[in-house]
Amino acid sequence: MASLQNSPSLHRTLFLNSFPQPHGHVHASPTFSCCTRRPSSFLVQASSAAASSSEDRPGRRQMLAVGLVFPSVSLLSQSSVSFAAETKKGFLSVLDKKDGYTFVYPFGWQEVAIEGQDKVFKDVIEPLESASVTVIPTSKEDIREFGSPQEIGETLIKKVLAPPSQKTKLIEATEREVDGKAYYTLEFVAKAPNYTRHALSIITIGNGKFYTLTTGANERRWEKMKDKLHTVVESFTVFNA
């Protein structure tokens, strides 16, 4: 059985690209390689100062749109992604034929481009409410080769899915199988000085790739958002590409 701890390249790549992105600096980046298949792409770089203060700032509804903060920059157009019609009330679907996965996300979230992540959708008012997908190569053929859900979960939340400065706790780690493919679902919290993020991740392996989808919300909004976030992770499916 391989250990995730013994996969430095996998760990390093996930670590660099998996943190949630509260409001940050946005720069135009039309030539950014991970977004070449998307027109009008933009690079979003998180600001640690913004991340630490965004949840304490009163009047969050003042930020009704990113354009109020960055008037010269717009979010990625939803027309840049292959969408199905609204498949479930309140959700839209994403189909990535190149990398071989699909999932749904809440209606109203906007797509942004973040360095190192394949796709990111987020609420422009609640910065901790987002869904992001990371896809990296792997030589493994099954997620179970890395260990049990509990083993992988403990490693990922401490070293990959949250910044090292945050205190994390794994709440639950489960396994399910769909069409012969194993998926691990992780529920965890990550505590920063100014906020706590309650999150869900689903991980699997297919097409020679390690897939991670992570979604979450501020702990204070968890009860309101948890059903929607569970719908997001439960919809994530990998197919042959």
Automatic annotation (TrEMBL):
Domain PsbP C-terminal: 89-238
Name of the molecule in the record: PsbP-like protein 1
GO biological process: photosynthesis
Entry GO terms, CC: extrinsic component of membrane; photosystem II oxygen evolving complex
Example GO molecular function: calcium ion binding
Top-rank lineage group of the source organism: Eukaryota
Native species: Pelargonium fulgidum
Pfam family, one: PsbP
